[in-house]
Amino acid sequence: MIRFLLFLALLWVPASAWSEAASPTAGDESRVRARSLGLALGAYPTGTVNAITDVPGVTVGHRTLISGDGKLVPGKGPVRTGVTVVIPRDDVWRKKVPAGSFVLNGTGEMTGLAWVEESGFLEYPIALTNTLNLPRVANGVMSWMIARYPGIGIRDDTLTPVIAECDDSRLNDVQGRHVSETDVIKALDGASGGPVAEGTVGAGTGMVSYGFKGGIGTSSRVVPSAAGGYTVGVLVNTNSGRRDELMMGGVPVGKLYGNDKAASIGAEGSIIVVVATDAPLDARQLKRLAKRAALGLARTGSTARHGSGDFILAFSTGNVIPHYPKERTFPFTAFADTHLNPLFAATVEATQEAILNALTMATTVVGRDGHKAEAIDLTRVREILKTFRSP
User: Fold this and answer.
1) Which of 100, 151, 198, 382 has the CA that lies 20 to 30 A from 12?
2) Alpha-carbon distance 219 to 216, whole Å?
3) Which one, of 389, 331, 342, 142, lies nearest residue 227 by Cα?
4) Residue 177 lies in a domain
5) Shortest CA distance to 34 belongs to which of 268, 312, 310, 299?
6) Annotated catalytic, 270?
7) At a CB cut-off of 8 Å and minimum separation 6, what does 49 contact?
């Protein structure tokens, strides 16, 4: 029976999500996305697959690395880590997307933001990984880009890739920097649209959030046709928050869940939020959108603690910025600020749900030195929700 369930689980998760050495953690109850618990998660409907990939042209790839058990041997393992990539559109180097960013609390790193802030656009994929793996992942992105655009650094411009990190050292041999250039390239080559694997996958493999196993989560919203019918999609790698802070759809689940010795794990961690939309926004407006993602984070209980790195990057596929335009001007659709409110609300809602999806989809992981990050007990959450709503 266990083998049969494992087989079904592997069928559901895209092949790009797992490395050869990776396997799901056994013993967890069947995982479901947050809205399946009946949570109140906003007013706007989701996109087709309720993921960042509902924004046309956006693709996501994962590479998950799980190997070894027991005592930490620095540089060798155990390994509980990976990389997740978001590609804004095909040929983003020559067809750049407007972009803007917001740093809520800066105890962390997202490389390349200086150029995004200066230029107002994004011209390569975004990669998420662990803290010490950041340089190797940057090398992987550069190698992948150079293979596609051989003129980079010769007759073409150079690049400063956008790589964002969260610390997975409680579960992972972070000194080993186990995500290789090859892993990054495989994640990029395997990036696709459609459903996105969540929880203990890719960059989220070793992450802990609100005292539970965290990781990758995603969600989307579609604004009404009267407001343009645009889509906003969000992907997060969540690795922060105290258990007693956790709010799920307005319910103080963290306080009602009860504390144990693992409750404070990850309290000074970080979160990376990537926001995508097909609304034709410019860089200034996207920075405003990125700020609203912080409100979605707050809805889940976060206070952006002193040791947290909360980095948000937003981009739009609704306009194209050409690589080296021959003419002095090029077409660019301007969006009126007075019509931004539905997009702000959609961003808040999608960010909140993406974070909760990361929690409800994550599976229990035992990492280095026997450190254990328990998946949130969904049966217990259902009981809390039922009791809280009872008259």
Assistant:
1) 382
2) 11
3) 342
4) yes
5) 299
6) yes
7) 194, 195, 196, 220
Domain count, the chain: 1
302 inside domain: yes
Domain that holds residue 69: 17-323+331-389
In a domain, 5, yes or no: no
Q: From the candidates 16, 209, 240, 308, which is the catalytic residue? A: 308
CB 84 within 8 A of CB 128: yes
Q: Which residues pair with 209 in a beta bridge?
A: 212
Report yes or no on 10 lying in a domain: no
Catalytic residue among 209, 220, 240, 270: 270
Residue 308 annotated as catalytic:
yes
Q: Give every CB contact of residue 275 below 8 A, 6+ residues apart in sequence.
A: 232, 233, 234, 286, 289, 290, 293, 312, 313, 314, 315, 347, 350, 351
> Which residue carries 């609100």 as its tokens?
210
- How many residues are listed for the chain in this entry? 391
Residues 178-202 pLDDT 10s:
999 999 999 999 999 999 999 999 9
**What's 159's domain CATH number?**
3.60.70.12
Render pLDDT for 318-353 as a digit per residue (tens, 0 to 9). 999 999 999 999 999 999 999 999 999 999 999 999
